[in-house]
Amino acid sequence: MDRDLPDSPEAGWSRSALVLTLYGGLTLAAFVWRAALGDPNALLHPRVDARFTPIAPLAGLATGLAFVGLSRFAVVRLAWARRLHGEFRAVLGPLDGREILLIALASSIGEECFFRGAMLPTLGLAASSAIFALLHVGPGWRYLPWTASALVMGLITGVAFEHFGELSSPIVAHFTINYLNLRHIVATDVGPLAAAPAKHSG
Description:
Elements: H1 9-36, H2 55-77, H3 79-92, H4 97-123, H5 125-134, H6 144-164, H7 168-187
Helix pairs in contact: 1-4, 2-3, 2-6, 2-7, 4-5, 4-6, 4-7, 5-6, 6-7
């Protein structure tokens, strides 16, 4: 990627097109997977009666905000979290508000439809969450907290899917995390964690 032209329309649209192609394909794969099993609706759990209630998206929002709060705390207090923040910031480069919204929305719908909507009813909660986490493995041990958080998030959104029988709670949680964290990463250069002042004896 040419880092000198990140804000050009061509660069923005090419990144947007890539995002839409990737997550659109993942969403389509989810519905094809479910159709092959005789139930094409990847938004609903095939063995749980859907509970269409405002509690479901509100639970997703609360879950997402809790994860975002924990990540903010980690970035403020922990050196490894600040290093990860900086590395993600360098990889992402500049993103405008439209791109952040598109990435957050497309990834939350595509990944939840595929990993929760299609994979979970077939492989189970533990296996689908583990595979989801493995796709969040970075180049080095320093990315392990990111992988671990994806595993926890997969388990929580999977339980929500099994409880409510539909994907509004997982999608809202996923969108909240991705949207708020992407905005924070792109907008905030946290720098290294300051060392604690030395104590003087006597």
